[in-house]
């Protein structure tokens, strides 16, 4: 415009939007990524790249609960008179057919059931701590920001309440399905697989079951890869951790405690891998579902 030209009285003056100065959250990846195995790998890489320290800290807390459970149940069973060496020998005799008719009853006596009861009870707490990580990780990943360990710690109480209740529902449904026939139990386990993540996201139990069922129907290939990867990691744990555990258990009661620590170490490493693959898969599926709805 010429310096001598008067301004246009009908021209709308430029305005400054103060919100433009606020840095928008960094978008995570492409907004149109397909839900496939490559995308899952990308999401896992993003989780590790941006949140490795916090994820390891959160998983360390989760693993500490597991170690506490293992030590409490082990020391408790020894205090109740359960002899690991005798139980191992009894199991070998039963499997070889050399045990008497009352061997199974002797093996599964009051001490054994007290041990199992404590294991299941503390297992609910362990599951709740694990579920508590899904919500904070999801929010930090979607918003493209750093994840604070206090976000995870702040969700542990809620995670125990919600995760333990859902774990109870899952355990009952899965057990009934296995008892009635193996295939229904496996089907229950498959279709309820996404619901663990949805409960951690903040959905109600019944909403999680309903939404998880729909996800399981639409993303069979991804969940099949998730299950295969998890089975592979668990197989590694069973081979390495199980072999070392048996070696230590053969040395007596102190060796039984050491075997629990040995098993915990390998289980923590493998468990973190399973958790990372599971979380990456669920985030990929959720992103695909949101894109299909035009969000």
From TrEMBL:
Keyword Ion transport listed: no
Domain of life, per lineage: Bacteria
Keyword Membrane (UniProt): yes
Keywords: Membrane, Transmembrane, Transmembrane helix
Transmembrane segments: 64-82, 112-135, 166-199, 219-240, 261-285
Region (Disordered): 1-34
Protein name (database record): Glycerophosphoryl diester phosphodiesterase membrane domain-containing protein
Organism of derivation: Persicimonas caeni
Lineage: Bacteria, Deltaproteobacteria, Bradymonadales, Bradymonadaceae, Persicimonas
């Amino acid at each position: 415009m010429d310096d001598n030209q008067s301004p246009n009285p009908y021209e709308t003056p430029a305005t400054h939007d103060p919100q433009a100065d606020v840095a928008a959250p960094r978008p995570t990846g492409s907004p149109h990524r397909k839900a496939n195995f490559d995308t899952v790998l990308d999401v896992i890489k993003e989780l590790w790249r941006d949140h490795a320290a916090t994820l390891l800290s959160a998983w360390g807390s989760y693993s500490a609960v597991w170690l506490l459970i293992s030590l409490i149940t082990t020391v408790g069973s020894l205090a109740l008179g359960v002899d690991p060496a005798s139980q191992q020998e009894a199991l070998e005799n039963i499997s070889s057919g050399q045990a008497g008719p009352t061997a199974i009853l002797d093996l599964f006596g009051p001490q054994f059931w007290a041990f199992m009861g404590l294991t299941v009870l503390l297992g609910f707490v362990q599951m709740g701590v694990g579920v508590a990580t899904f919500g904070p990780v999801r929010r930090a990943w979607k918003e493209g920001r750093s994840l604070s360990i206090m976000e995870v710690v702040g969700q542990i109480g809620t995670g125990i309440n919600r995760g333990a209740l859902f774990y109870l529902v899952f355990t009952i449904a899965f057990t009934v399905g296995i008892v009635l026939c193996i295939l229904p139990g496996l089907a229950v386990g498959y279709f309820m697989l996404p619901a663990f993540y949805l409960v951690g996201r903040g959905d109600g139990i019944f909403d999680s079951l309903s939404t998880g069922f729909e996800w399981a129907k639409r993303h069979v290939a991804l969940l099949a890869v998730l299950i295969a990867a998890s089975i592979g990691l668990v197989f590694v744990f069973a081979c390495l951790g199980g072999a070392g555990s048996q070696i230590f258990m053969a040395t007596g009661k102190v060796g039984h405690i050491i075997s629990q620590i040995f098993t915990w170490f390998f289980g923590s490493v493998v468990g973190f891998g399973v958790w990372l693959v599971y979380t990456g898969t669920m985030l990929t599926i959720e992103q695909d579902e949101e894109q299909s709805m035009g969000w």
